[in-house]
Write a structure and sequence with these properties.
The structure is a single chain. By secondary structure, the protein is of the alpha+beta class. It has a single domain, classed as Thiol Ester Dehydrase, Chain A (Roll), CATH 3.10.129. 19% of the residues lie in helices and 43% in strands. The chain is built from 3 helices and 7 strands. Strands 1-2-3-5-6-7-4 form a 7-stranded antiparallel beta sheet. The radius of gyration is 15 Å and the shape is globular.
Length: 149
Amino acid sequence: MESRLAILQTLIGQELNNTPSPAGSWLQLRLDHIEQGKAIVSMLVRPEMCNPYGNIHGGMMSLVIDEVIGFGVLSMDAPNHYTSINLNVDFLYAIKGGARLSAEAEVIRMGKKIMHVDVRVYNAETKVLLAKAASNLSVTSMQYSIAAI
């Protein structure tokens, strides 16, 4: 059976708009890079993702971060699902609607019960660091099916 990482690698360069995550599909993320423990996605900040000032809403930024964490976790090919314990986000700079952002997740530690993932989000054009985040995830008893990508 093909690994989840191998399946994800076939999707590099594609917009992921038909994933098991309806919220993630709505973001219209493009998978730019995936390897074991690392994932990079990018997306266009659409008007409906913005706050009244025309910048990406903090909740939307957190959603992007949570989704790229998910790809980082999937890249580890663990047999079981992981669920978030926490998500800490530092919002550093705003990004306007119409701009493209890039989010990079890296699995820092995969223990028997807890996984730690760091994320950095950049303005794809200017390379300005927009946000940094860290999340701890706990392994669950639910096993993955290969269709869970």
